[in-house]
């Protein structure tokens, strides 16, 4: 992929000291990127391919939960919840990225 789903900015969010503002910004950016990739796949391959390659519904749900965890910053376990969700999303993004590269290379994403 030209723009990897798991980029340095996304990885940094999970590795550095928890900064809610930075984490929220990164999560929103990742959701936008995922929507763009989804749109291209949908137009060229259909909805079924979006789910089989990206697991779009699962990823968007997990990203939404990351966002919820960040916005609930008064909750003492907010950071812990976010880090668990971030690790899950990162794993899913890596898998999706590999599938895009191997199954949809012709789309030049």
Concise synopsis of the structure shown:
With 109 residues, the chain is mostly helical. The protein is 77% helix and 0% strand.
Q: Can you offer a commentary on this structure?
A:
This protein is mainly alpha-helical and 109 residues long. Helix 1 runs antiparallel to helix 5 (78-103). It is built from five helices and no strands. The protein has helices at residues 8-15, 20-45, 47-54, 56-71, 78-103. The chain has one domain (21-103). The mean pLDDT is 91. The N and C termini lie close together (5 Å).
Strand and helix map with partners:
Elements: H1 8-15, H2 20-45, H3 47-54, H4 56-71, H5 78-103
Keywords:
109 residues; mainly alpha; elongated
Proportion in helices: over 70%
Question: How many strands?
Answer: 0
Query: What structural category do the secondary elements indicate?
Result: mainly alpha
For the record, the count of structural domains works out to 1
- State the end-to-end distance: 5 Å
What is the number of helical segments per DSSP (H or I, 4+ residues)? Answer: 5
What gross morphology would you assign? elongated
Give a quick account of the main beta sheet: strands, pairing sense, barrel closure: none
**What is the beta-strand fraction?**
under 5%
Instruction: Note poorly predicted spans.
Output: none
Q: What is the N-to-C succession of helices and strands? A: HHHHH
Rg:
14 Å
Mean pLDDT: 91
């Amino acid at each position: 992929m030209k723009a990897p789903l798991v980029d340095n900015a996304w990885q940094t969010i999970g590795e550095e000291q928890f900064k809610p503002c930075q984490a929220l910004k990164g999560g929103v950016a990742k959701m936008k990127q995922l929507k763009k990739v989804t749109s291209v796949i949908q137009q060229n391959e259909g909805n079924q391919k979006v789910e089989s390659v990206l697991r779009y519904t699962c990823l968007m749900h997990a990203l939404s939960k990351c966002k919820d965890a960040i916005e609930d910053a008064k909750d003492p376990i907010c950071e812990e919840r976010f880090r668990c969700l971030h690790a899950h999303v990162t794993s899913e993004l890596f898998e999706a990225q590999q599938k895009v590269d191997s199954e949809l290379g012709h789309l030049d994403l």
